């Protein structure tokens, strides 16, 4: 297995197929929502937003873009947290798959602060700085290296303040964990979970993608032994540069 995971093994995931079985797709999205809640994956994005929120002004409207939103469980977790804290947060979820967009729109019907749209992560249909933050979870491993760089660069382009990108790590323990976690899942989940690990990135690869995308402000952190996050705010770099300049006077 170590040799098998030493390099990325690109393979199509069944959920990404245009003719994916609608029933299995819905079941798979529901399964992912449960795993996100049980393992706290949805809370990982909120964890970083909580830190960023220390600099939000009272009464300020914060706009967030969730790239490859899936069934929109991450946006809804963000909005639940924002509601508890009294923040005025609005979220747009974007996904390329028409079937996934339709499912997400159903779950978002009762939430006026959440909008779901169709679009390509490598060519986001938004102006520069349209959002305060761009976030994504469990998406980058679906892409080849070139498109992953494009998606990260696009997130940086549309986000005025910062980005959060979280995904799996290509590790042996990740493969073992995902195999156990999906034993009772449907065939689509079982297949895609293993493929996801095989085509996930290593830390070295992630750092290279970050730098190529021009997101040097985003810091790398590892979570739960098998996931990573790239997260940061653009003004953090500006403050560091300013501090270095002032100290050098």
Strand content: 15-25%
- Low-confidence stretches are 237-249
Radius of gyration: 18 Å
CATH topology-level fold name: Rossmann fold
How many domains? The number is 1
Strand order of the largest sheet: 3-2-1-4-5-7-6
Number of strands: 7
Arithmetic mean of pLDDT: 87
Q: Name the CATH superfamily assignment.
A: Vaccinia Virus protein VP39
* Overall outline: globular
Question: How is the secondary structure organized here?
Answer:
Elements: H1 22-39, H2 41-52, E1 61-67, H3 73-85, E2 88-95, H4 98-108, E3 114-118, E4 131-137, H5 145-158, E5 159-168, H6 172-181, H7 187-198, H8 203-212, E6 219-223, E7 227-233, H9 234-247
Parallel strand pairs: 1-2, 1-4, 2-3, 4-5
Antiparallel strand pairs: 5-7, 6-7
Helix pairs in contact: 2-3, 6-7
Written account of the structure:
The chain is an alpha/beta fold. The protein has one domain: Vaccinia Virus protein VP39 (Rossmann fold). The chain is 46% helix and 20% strand. The protein contains 9 helices and 7 strands, in the order ααβαβαββαβαααββα. It has helices spanning 22-39, 41-52, 73-85, 98-108, 145-158, 172-181, 187-198, 203-212, 234-247; strands at residues 61-67, 88-95, 114-118, 131-137, 159-168, 219-223, 227-233. Strands 3-2-1-4-5-7-6 form a 7-stranded mixed sheet, sandwiched between helices. Helix 2 packs across helix 3 (73-85). It is globular. 43% of the residues are buried.
């Amino acid at each position: 297995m170590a040799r098998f995971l030493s390099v990325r093994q690109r393979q199509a995931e069944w959920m990404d197929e245009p003719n994916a079985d609608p029933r299995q797709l819905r079941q798979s999205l529901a399964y992912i929502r449960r795993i996100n809640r049980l393992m706290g994956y949805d809370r990982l994005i909120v964890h970083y937003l909580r830190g960023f929120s220390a600099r939000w002004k009272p009464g300020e409207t914060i706009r967030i873009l969730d790239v490859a939103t899936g069934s929109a469980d991450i946006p809804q977790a963000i909005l639940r947290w924002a509601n508890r804290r009294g923040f005025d947060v609005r979220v747009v979820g974007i996904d390329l798959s028409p079937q996934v967009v339709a499912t997400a729109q159903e779950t978002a019907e009762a939430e006026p602060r959440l909008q779901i749209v169709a679009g390509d992560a490598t060519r986001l249909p938004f102006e520069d700085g349209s959002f305060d933050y761009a976030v994504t979870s469990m998406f980058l491993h679906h892409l080849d290296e070139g498109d992953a760089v494009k998606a990260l660069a696009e997130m940086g382009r549309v986000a005025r303040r910062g980005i959060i990108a979280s995904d799996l790590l290509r590790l042996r323990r990740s493969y073992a964990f995902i195999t156990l976690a999906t034993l009772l899942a449907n065939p689509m989940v079982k297949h895609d979970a293993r493929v996801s690990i095989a085509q996930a990135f290593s830390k070295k690869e992630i750092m290279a993608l970050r730098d190529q995308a021009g997101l040097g402000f985003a810091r790398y952190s590892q979570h739960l032994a098998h996931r990573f996050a790239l997260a940061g705010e653009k003004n953090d770099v500006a403050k560091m540069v300013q501090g270095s300049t002032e100290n050098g006077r």
